[in-house]
Design brief:
By secondary structure, the protein is of the alpha/beta class. The longest helix is centred in the last third of the chain and has 20 residues. The structure holds flavin-adenine dinucleotide.
Length: 428
């Protein structure tokens, strides 16, 4: 007998509808009962309060824009780190081209703007009572913004969970410090970098890292090579990276595309891949990624990423929670530039309009991304895209894609200009 097929899509949609109707699981309910008892960390807000989780690219940009649009809004930024480190350009730090202070900023100017900086970690959300639970107590909100970035799915690589403390990834702020120390102590042999299946943060990032570490080995005359093992068929900006690998680093870099890492045996210094085993002397294993845990604790997704209502980045099942940056699955690469644009031109604008009791303005018709990658200490290549709006699929769609894959010092200088412009808006 033929039955009606229930597609995965239908199941997902039903799941979301159930969550939207407040049919949360027992664990989440128990957690919420616990939050209800947690003391309030901040007193009552003077005006409407917007609580933002994550003091990174999306969160800081949203906070600053909100205060500029309406200084009367009570903006609270919740971030467990005391200072910010930029991942964009951080491969220059790993290769010893720039010091750490070049990439780090404190939150002082945000506090001067009147933003409350709460140096705590968010633990969960009581959506019924509109409270965020943090390690320091709970905070009542009118609107909640989640821009917590990514976490690593260590359990998807056999043997990785047990040794993850030995293998700093350097795809989240400050992990770079331990990785840099390992690179400085590397005396030669195989420096293996592995690239997971997407989506992951900054698709060109591992390929830039491979080039910069090959540059480091070459410049410092270290008898070793970078072994780049990628699950993907080719890098973004492929002609630019492949030309650099070939022309600059033929003796310092081996590249294996279409090769997925399945396990690691740290004791034997071996990784297992779909192409067989590879030895390593130093390993930078970049694990598969998903949105940071707080989005699942908030009940806005039960998957890896958060499907949001575009163009304003509202959660699908809650009219008072916005999700942006790498954590969402709005389309396009997971980049600081997109997190910045989403915070500045979408989330902050929408919340400010709602608080002012006005209709939000028409959303900007497009969003632009640009991503520079260095291939040595001076020269860079870039890719840029303009995204529009697919009204039927309700998703972003690529309108135009441009690349400059010819490595030049001019592109390197443009990369610095880009970074200073964005850091300036966020922290200046
Ligand atoms: C090597 C590398 C190179 C890159 N190069 C570029 C580039 O050239 N251009 C570009 O546009 N992008 C680049 N990126 C990508 C960019 O860094 C990310 O896309 C960007 O950081 C995403 O912003 P976000 O706000 O989503 O997350 P983040 O900037 O990571 O901010 C998330 C913040 O949330 C905090 N957080 C997490 N959980 C909690 C919690 N429970 N409670 C409170 N706070 C929490 C974290 O501590 C963190 O500070 C690069 C990334 C890497 C790794």
């Amino acid at each position: 007998m033929k039955g009606k097929r229930v597609s995965r899509r239908t199941v997902l949609k039903t799941g979301l509808a159930a969550a939207g109707a407040g049919l949360l699981g027992g664990a989440v309910r128990a957690q919420q009962a616990h939050y209800a008892k947690s003391p309030l960390l901040l007193g009552p807000a003077r005006g409407n309060r917007v609580v933002i989780v994550g003091g990174g690219w999306g969160g800081v940009t949203t906070a600053r824009t909100l205060k500029r649009l309406d200084p009367g809004i009570d903006v609270v930024l919740v971030e467990p780190k005391e200072i910010f480190m930029s991942c964009p350009l951080s491969n220059l730090y790993l290769a010893g081209v720039k010091d750490l202070h070049f990439f780090t900023f404190d939150y002082t100017n945000l506090v001067k703007d009147g933003i409350h900086f709460v140096n705590e970690r968010a633990l969960g959300v009581d959506r019924d009572r509109k409270r965020l639970l943090t390690t320091g107590g709970s905070i009542a909100y009118d609107y909640l913004v989640l821009s917590p970035g990514v976490e690593y799915a260590y359990e998807r690589v056999a043997g990785l969970g047990e040794v993850k403390h030995l293998l700093p990834v350097g795809f989240r702020p400050f992990e770079h410090v331990a990785l840099r120390r390992q690179i400085e102590n590397f005396k030669g042999g195989d420096l293996v970098i592995t690239v997971p299946k997407g989506p992951y943060r900054c698709p060109p990032g591992p390929y830039e890292r491979a080039a910069m570490l090959a540059w480091y080995l070459k410049t410092n005359k270290i008898k070793g090579k970078v072994v780049l093992i990628s699950a993907a068929a080719k890098p973004p900006k492929a002609p630019g990276f492949l030309a650099a690998y070939d022309e600059l680093y033929a003796d310092y870099l081996e590249y294996y595309p279409n090769t997925e890492v399945t396990g690691v045996d740290y004791g034997r210094k071996v990784i297992q891949t779909s192409l067989g085993e590879f030895d390593f002397d130093l390993l930078n294993l970049i694990p598969p990624m998903r949105a940071a845990e707080i989005v699942r604790k908030a009940g806005v997704t039960d998957g890896d990423w958060v499907d949001v209502r575009l163009p304003w980045h509202l959660a699908k099942n809650d009219d008072f929670i916005y999700v942006l940056g790498d954590a969402d699955s709005a389309g396009g690469p997971k980049s600081g530039k997109l997190a910045f644009e989403e915070g500045k031109n979408r989330v902050a604008v929408h919340i400010a309009a709602r608080i002012a009791g006005k209709e939000p303005p028409a959303p900007p018709p497009e969003v632009k991304n640009i991503c520079y990658s260095f291939v040595n200490d001076e020269e860079a290549i870039w890719i840029a895209a303009r995204y529009g709006w697919d009204a039927v699929k309700k998703r972003r769609k690529v309108l135009e894609l441009k690349m400059d894959t010819k490595r030049t010092a001019k592109n390197g200088s443009l990369a610095y200009d880009w970074a200073f412009e964005h850091w300036g808006y966020m922290f200046g």
